[in-house]
Amino acid sequence: MMKSRLILAIGLVAAASQVTAGPQSFTTARSFAMGGTGVATAHPASASTANPAMMAMKQHGWADDFGLILPSVNARVADEEEVVNQIDDIQDTIDQLDAQIDARNDSGIRDSAGRLGDQLEELNRDTMRVDAGVGLSLAVPTSKLSIGVFTAGSLRATARGNVSEDDLALLESFEIDPDEAEKFDNIGDVLDSNGVIIAAAYAEVGLSLAKAFELSNDNILSVGISPKYVELRTFEYMQEVSDFEDDDFDADEYQTEKSGFNADLGAAYSFGETQKWTAGLAVRNIVPMELDSQSGRTFELDPKVTAGIAHAGNMHVITAELDLTENKAFGYEDDTQWAALGAEFDVFRAVQLRGGIRQNLSSNDNNDGIEEKTQLTFGVGLSPFGAHLEISGLVSDADVGGAIELGAAF
What we know:
The protein contains 6 helices and 16 strands. It is of the alpha+beta class and 410 residues long. The chain has one domain (2-409): Porin (Beta Barrel), CATH 2.40.160. A hairpin with a 2-residue loop joins strand 15 (387-396) and strand 16.
């Protein structure tokens, strides 16, 4: 029952935002596989969501005239304590306890009350997290002015169990004296322990413009901008663990929303004897935006500054990237500030093998959410005749995730 509630909650937030959205920046499947990097390595079609300046930079000859992503989808799940299954089991035990009270089964009441108390203690402050994203883009690089259009977004939702000490004391009294339980018609109605879902989401649609300038030393400097329209949403839902019913759910009751115009800026510089080195700098969401949830939590969409450097050859790309700003937590989660390494090996322009690692540099000693520390990523790209299929994965101590993308480039 809880599982269907969580899926429904996430689905309704996504539908209301028109694309699946959230506070974590959207990344394409190629970026996902390379540790989330892209500021100095993005291809034209992915430049709009990584660094708009890269749309005008020199790429491989088979990938710098046209780019299309239709679509790119990714998701991550962290559920170490199996929160969904725990709440399902609790609801089953509540039903069993009610049946035993009706039957005046004293030994059954003692057993079920003890088991329910243990289940609630295990659930307390256990947390799960879901991230999802989707994006589409079209890019047409030219020597005069490169132009692209895009829409993208991400969702982060966290769910947690909160257990009342009064509930534990009440169930303990049932174990001591089953007659105490027979005073209640429905145990679920008197339990205050609850489950909470908190989500933050954003959706964006925009236009990217980039221009490259050839310098006197044959190096290239590119600058780009992506003006865009952004919509933010927050969602909070709290209900007693016994009472998660789909037909009682109304997403509009639990949402707040805000929209406005924003922009991303980017710059890229190629250097070296054959311009195989590229340095990039991107600033996403240059206009700070805030949205308060119904309970007063603040979702902050602050400017995010990322710097990167990459070396590219005919068969390889190696890159390093660093967030210069911190992404603040909204729900039961960690603040994040990533340092990442990524690599790509190209086999005859037909198969690309990718890998990456990234480390969260933020201090989260006082955070009570799921930890985000070291993440390992990997992926493969298939690109016959200009068509692209990208498949990527992610693993960490807490997360598992994946991404898939369809597109074209020539």
